[in-house]
């Protein structure tokens, strides 16, 4: 339930990061977008997302999080 | 025109940041192979720039842990040297070797036989020697980025192990800016004049109120900040930047501080122009530009007053106006780390650069002399001495600089870089003529340039520095160009005039010198021809 109450602004900010990193429209992304269901979100795209996430939120991801945080909703949960 | 980015780590995130430059990445970890292999993507004709941005720790491999010599680094240098020699038409950019702060030997590293510090220094020594020997190799000191921002902010740990991305987004931003500034510095697309305000810019406080000795300028407190700022300005001036003052002040107060304050680092003679009055600063800048024979688009304006900065941005939008630092203690660092690389970047500093202010000041003296004479007796009074070199390899940096910077007395405005000039000098089908000039006021160095295609008998480039216009030097240079064509057995010489926004002054140059117009193309370019007789 905790993730269901994710504030919209964090989700919106992560969607913005992902759309810029993958160079796709934010309209094609939602809270449930992930590496499994988003065409350009492959392993290379994921690195770019993590890189831009770190810059936007000033928070560096540990290695485990890089491997396991694979959706917009999971990324939003890491926004400080 | 494509940039190819080669590395030994994942540098993909740099590509988007280099836009609008069209850049592509080589295959992962293909740096050494692409440089060393004939027919690799790096050798493709449309690749104009090859960026070799590598990570040193990774290239060291086991040598990073004291196990053996840095073989990959040596291989990289061998491949780089060979590539630069084989491809003089390509610009190759490389960062210096820069190890992270991880040291397996700890304190012992500095004096140990396997010292990483010593290895890094030796590798950089070889890289610098390569760059000195190959004008198409451009290197930059990547360590400066780590010194300024710190490796914790620039190295990425998790993304390195997850996806071979060595750097953070911040570092990719910095590298993109550095590559741009370096390439701009190489093509000498820099500005020429730095206009500074006086009160609260060159010293603290207002000279008209505090007096010449009362302002903050010295070796202590905020006075030291301004004194170091002046030292940094003086250092820029030595690289060829012309300094000028535009200040709202009484001329007498300004004269007093130059005469009486011993803490002034900058002297009157360090400035190409000093204007202190109560007129709008934009008008004063335009007047200085006219006096120096330079466009205001080659000016940068520094002033602590945001209103003055806004006025210049509004009335002279082509002048670069950086924001002034909030804190006086940051003045020197701001000038050298931000203003200088953004607008006054140079890859080589020539003897002409070092003497530039003197040359412009001498010009003002010549103008005063000209006021009292008719032209011919004035020219005799000057005791002009000219010397024309043909294909002088030692002058290619200056020749490239002249093609990049000369806009007014320039018949074709073709911009060339050092690699182009080397090609012309080495080719037997081209001649590069440079005219050196001195007179009783001083040595101007090289002031005229002609590039002649000896196969076609065509003058590809003909230009002269604005500083010497009106002294009939162009005739001597043109005569020499014609003579070389005659020596080749040619019976005619072709000249071209390609109009630009700035070169109207030479529209009738060829006709004035006995050439006949042949044809005019729709864009206004005109071809001229002159018959030459065998001797």
Plain-language structure description:
The complex is a heterodimer of chains A (80) and B (535). Helices cover 52% and strands 0% of the residues of chain A. By secondary structure, chain A is mainly alpha-helical. In chain A, α1 packs across α2 (43-57). Chain B is of the alpha/beta class and 535 residues long. Helix content of chain B is 40%, strand content 18%. Chain B is built from 22 helices and 16 strands. Chain B has helices spanning 13-17, 31-36, 56-60, 71-86, 116-133, 143-149, 151-154, 158-163, 169-186, 207-210, 221-238, 251-260, 281-292, 306-315, 331-343, 351-354, 356-370, 375-381, 396-405, 418-426, 473-487, 509-512, and strands at 2-6, 23-25, 47-52, 91-95, 137-140, 193-196, 242-248, 271-277, 299-302, 385-390, 430-439, 442-453, 458-464, 492-497, 516-520, 526-531. In chain B, α12 (251-260) links the parallel β7 and β8. In chain B, α4 packs parallel to α5 (116-133), α11 (221-238) runs parallel beside α15 and α19 packs across α20. Chain B is globular and about 75 Å long. The interface between A and B is medium-sized, with 18 and 16 residues.
Q: Distance N terminus to C terminus of chain B?
A: 45 Å
Gross geometry of chain A: globular
* Low-confidence runs of chain A: none
Residue share in helices of chain A? 40-55%
Strand content bin of chain A: under 5%
Low-confidence stretches of chain B: none
Secondary structure class of chain A reads mainly alpha
Classify the beta-strand content of chain B into a percent band.
Answer: 15-25%
Strand segment count of chain A: 0
Strand elements of chain B, count: 16
**Oligomeric state of shown chains:** heterodimer
Mean pLDDT of chain B: 91
The chain pair forming the largest interface, with residue counts per chain, is: A-B, 18 and 16 residues
| Biggest beta-sheet profile of chain A | none
